[in-house]
Amino acid sequence: MMGTMTRDDRASYTLSFAEFDIEPRLRRLSRGGAVVRIGARAFDILWLLAEAPGQVLEHRYLLERAWAGRVVGEANLRVQIAALRRALDIKGVERYILNVPGRGYLLTAPVVRR
């Protein structure tokens, strides 16, 4: 399964932050040119967060968008966020994805669209 982004939703641009590039047309996350393997849901969540850096995206919004309206619990979201944090881990560097208790998650790094 390719996740919930349709072919029309896949932007023609790349979003970059820190050492990472997110390429939606290829559904690829890379770090310094090397592919970083993440699942389809994790990719969709990362894309949503990168489209709104520094903004808190509510749990409900992320669940609705990443699971295309399917009813899933917040535990599913936490599992995907944990996977993203592992994939984005750089020793000695602050986490890129922060939890805002009772509200949602945000990407802390500045993002450049190219």
Description:
The strands form two sheets. This protein has a five-stranded antiparallel sheet with strand order 4-3-2-1-8, covered by helices on one side. The termini are far apart. It has a single domain, classed as Arc Repressor Mutant, subunit A, CATH 1.10.10. The longest helix has 14 residues, at 74-87. A hairpin with a 4-residue loop joins strand 2 (20-23) and strand 3 (28-31). The protein has helices at 40-51, 59-66, 74-87, and strands spanning 15-17, 20-23, 28-31, 34-36, 57-58, 97-100, 104-107, 112-113. It has 114 residues and is an alpha+beta fold. The protein has three helices and eight strands; from the N terminus they run E-E-E-E-H-E-H-H-E-E-E. Helix 1 (40-51) crosses helix 3 (74-87). The protein is globular. Residues 1-8 have low confidence and may be disordered. GO terms for molecular function: DNA binding. It comes from Massilia arenae. Residues 12-109 form the OmpR/PhoB-type domain.
